[in-house]
Amino acid sequence: MARLIRMDQTGHTTLAEWTPGDPSSAEAAIAAFREELDAGYYAVVSAGEGQAEQVRELPLEADLVILRRPIAGG
Amino acid sequence: MSAPGAVLPETAAVHWRPRVDAERLRRRGRLWTATTVAHSIPFLVTAVVLLALEPLSFPVAIMAIVHAWMIPELYAARGANVLRPRRRSADGPERVAAGLLGDLVGHAAREVHGRTGVVPERGRLGIWVVGEAGALLVRPGGRRVDCWCVKADAADLPSGDRIAHLLLALREDEQGFATVANLAFSGARWRVRRRLAPAVRPALDAAAGLAR
After folding, report:
1. Are strands A2-8 and A64-68 parallel, antiparallel or unpaired?
2. Taking the model in full, what pTM does it have?
3. Which of B127, B134, B143, B178 could cysteine-pair with B207, CB 3.0–4.6 Å?
4. What does the alpha-carbon distance between residue B65 and residue B40 come to, in Å, rounded to a whole number?
5. Residue A1, exposed/middle/buried by CB under 10 A (0-12, 13-18, 19+)?
6. Looking at beta carbons, which residues of chain B come within 8 Å of A70?
7. Does A70 contact chain B (CB < 8 Å)?
8. Substitution target from B7, B17, B91, B157 for chain A, most A beta carbons within 10 A
9. Cα–Cα distance between A67 and A70 in angstroms, integer?
10. What is the pLDDT of residue B64?
11. CB-CB contact of B68 with B44 (8 Å)
């Protein structure tokens, strides 16, 4: 089962889980995904060690999509 | 490391900065060294002139020499500070965040994180040592280190999540990451190493080994 997680003060929170064969779970995940992007989060898919890609649409084929806050110079 | 053409969205917030690349890093490093020398030399010249004019002024000359020594040391201390651990969250969130971070990195990096609290990451510009509020970049050859101050825009994150934020951004777009971050120091690795917490030094040593 694929997961959409948000890194936050709890470590991380699972916002949605879906399976490609279950349209209702995918729709709920897409809605949660858009809501977090609207709140200012960026979505990243880790593509193995040393690789990551920012995504603007929920990739339903991904196993794990991570939401992160923006970074800035300190 | 990052996908070709991928641009870190945070670079839009610093649109006036030229995108960092290896050549620009080399130039900034040379400028940083020249600036440090320019700050230190006048104190050394003062010491020599004082001793030449009046040997009894040696206490003042010694103070001038100490000043000349302290300037690069203070810069290096500022650079090393980017890897200083921040306030910890409760045990539960720290464990959860460390688990996610562990899933993102390989076995070797996980082991280094367990011992030192920072994560090594190979990039195109060199070997990165990623901490909670910044990162060191050990340049190819292992002798020069750039210290970058950069953090996630959220104060309440556990340690592992702070590192994971920086790590993911670095993996998305390494040059963009270096463009967004503020350069806190560029100079000799040995100078930074002395100012790091003893627990973190093995991570820098390992990164330098990989960079050679």
Report:
1. parallel
2. 0.94
3. B127
4. 9
5. exposed
6. 9-10, 13, 152-153
7. yes
8. B157
9. 10
10. 97
11. yes
Query: For A42-59, what is each residue's pLDDT tens digit?
Result: 999 988 768 899 999 999
> What stretch of H or E contains A16?
strand A11-18
* Residue B50 contacts residue B60 (beta carbons within 8 Å): yes
pLDDT digits (tens, 9 = 90+) for B61-103: 999 999 999 999 999 999 999 999 888 889 999 999 999 999 9
3-state helix, strand, coil in chain B (%, to 5): 60, 15, 25
Place of tokens 């890194």: A7
Residue B75 CA: distances (Å) to CA of A55, B39, B207: 38, 11, 21
**Identity of residue A16:** A
Give the pLDDT mean for B11-37: 96
Does B91 contact A at CB distance below 8 Å?
no
| Cα A65 to Cα B62: distance, rounded to the nearest angstrom | 59
Does the ipTM surpass 0.90? yes
**Chain B residues in contact with A68 (beta carbon < 8 A):** 152, 164-165, 168-169
In three-state secondary structure terms, A50 is coil
For A69, how many CA atoms within 13 A lie in the half-sphere containing its CB?
A: 17
Nearest Cα residue to B150 out of A20, A44, A74: A74
